[in-house]
Amino acid sequence: MDPEWNDAQPIYRQIRDRVVAMILDGVVADGDPLPSVRAVAAESRVNPLTVLKGYQQLADEHLVETRRGRGMFVTEGARDRLLAGERQRFLAEEWPAVAATIRRLGLDARDLLSAPRNNGAETSAEGD
């Protein structure tokens, strides 16, 4: 996990969000163990209780489970539940602004489907 923190939200929430991203990206799959609290705390230079609080949020959301003496593991179906929730959130919160921009620019489905894809990587304009 990247130890860069954003001051806009609590660190435990950022830890939770990073684990969610790891699940969504397939870095950890159903049944996989999470990195230990101590390892994440040492790597990120935060208090282990902060990491534990982030992990506890995941457990409260039934995305991970504690196996006594073994650690925390991603629950079966966690990725599918996250995807469903993220899709719903995107459609409710982000899509209206995206759709408005598409309409404002006069784009159609053909334009969108033929647009270059950068898979989340930033691209620079040619000739820079």
How would you sum up this structure, described in words?
With 128 residues, the chain is mainly alpha-helical. It folds into two domains: 66 residues, Arc Repressor Mutant, subunit A; 36 residues, no CATH class. The chain is 54% helix and 6% strand. It is built from five helices and two strands; from the N terminus they run H-H-H-E-E-H-H. A hairpin with a 3-residue loop joins strand 1 and strand 2. The two termini are 32 Å apart. The C terminus is likely disordered.
Give the SSE map.
Blueprint: H1 11-24, H2 37-44, H3 48-60, E1 64-67, E2 71-74, H4 78-105, H5 109-114
Question: In which range does the helix fraction lie?
Answer: 40-55%
CATH class of the largest domain: Mainly Alpha
Name the CATH architecture of the largest domain: Orthogonal Bundle
Number of β-strand runs: 2
Helix/strand-derived category reads mainly alpha
Q: Output the strand order for the largest sheet.
A: 1-2
The sequence of SSEs as H and E is: HHHEEHH
Shape: elongated
Q: What is the third-level CATH name, the topology of the largest domain?
A: Arc Repressor Mutant, subunit A
- Report the sheet-strand fraction: 5-15%
Instruction: Specify Rg, calculated over alpha carbons.
Output: 19 Å
Distance N to C terminus: 32 Å
> How is the main sheet built?
2 strands, antiparallel
Number of structural units classed as domains:
2
Low-confidence stretches: 121-128
* Number of helical segments with 4 or more residues: 5
CATH superfamily of the largest domain: Winged helix-like DNA-binding domain superfamily/Winged helix DNA-binding domain
Instruction: Give the overall average pLDDT.
Output: 89
